[in-house]
Amino acid sequence: MKRKSGQDPAITRNWKPATLAIRGGTARSDFGETSEAIFMTSGYSYENAEEAAARFRGDTPGMTYSRLQNPTVEMLEKRIALMEGAESCRATASGMAAMSVALLSMLSAGDHMVAGKIMFGSNRWLTDTLFPRYGIEVTLVDSHETAQWEAAVRPNTKVFFFETPANPSMQISDIKGICDIARAHGIISIVDNAFATSALQRPMEMGADVVCYSATKLMDGQGRVLAGAICSSEQMITETILPFHRNVGATLSPFNAWVVLKGLETLDLRAHRQSENAMKVAQFLEGRVKSVLYPGLESHPHHKLAMQQMVAAGPIFSILLGGGRKEAHGLLDGLNLIDISNNIGDSRSLMTHPSSTTHFGMSEEARLAVGITEDMIRVNIGLEDADDLIADLDQALTGIGL
Question: What is the pTM of this model?
């Protein structure tokens, strides 16, 4: 493949994020294609047996197997790393593959981890069910209470893990404050940045050691494929994450990598336009329902911190209707334009009832402890005209007496 400017650090270091999202990491074949090529291959051939041996030893550059390297996946990894401001990136088969690989590559039996108690339901399954099974201790804290992180540190604490904004409460955590505590104790800090992406928030600039993504969400942005990503230092990726990832095999397919590459080209535009739409819709809902949990609103308890860390508040928020599951399901069933779906980051507007979908696997007690009530609905605002979305919500709310 011809190595072009998209992989030349001397050139890319001067590019702005919007340019990196389109050209970062690009490598062209001898055909000179402008759009990235899809290399749908599982393996690679060698000129002779010694070349194969040399590649496996690492003495000669080149690819050996698509579970380890693939030209299309490599372009995506380089692009995400450049956008994130990271030295390296490893792409995975899904967002949960990214979270699982990042955490399990760093934790062993007898280790202790501190995590924010409000997080995606599958992440809570890891902390509540899987890790204790393998002798990994977990302490859950109120992530926005920075002092609780310091108080939870033990001699065997290896990892801090949190997401901000948190799913689905939209709680905001002090990234720099938490990461500073972690660094002071020699603890690895891992941030799930899927709700924002590097287009709206860059945790590594605030001290995070590792940033993880469900690229299924805003990075793809059109509900097409599953993908994940782990960003960190070259040393962390090479020595800790790669050995686990390559042997577990949570590998991203070249086709899915190509789709996400196409999604990244419009990420900056979508993230900001959807944030604008979300603000308009959230302002309409404020006062119409019991509560709107959106960091972009001044009424949000962590609004000031959110605006310090984020350039825009993103497309996602939650609402509390003030009733129960009957009212929540009634609102969803009354929608004509907005889809009922548990995805987020999509260019289409979507709504879901977390208690019965994304966080169904948590006990009722655990859900209530983190504010996931039966009247909560999570909203993803897309690229439709905001006035049409407001009209749809208006008629659906009227239908349940709000």
Answer: 0.94
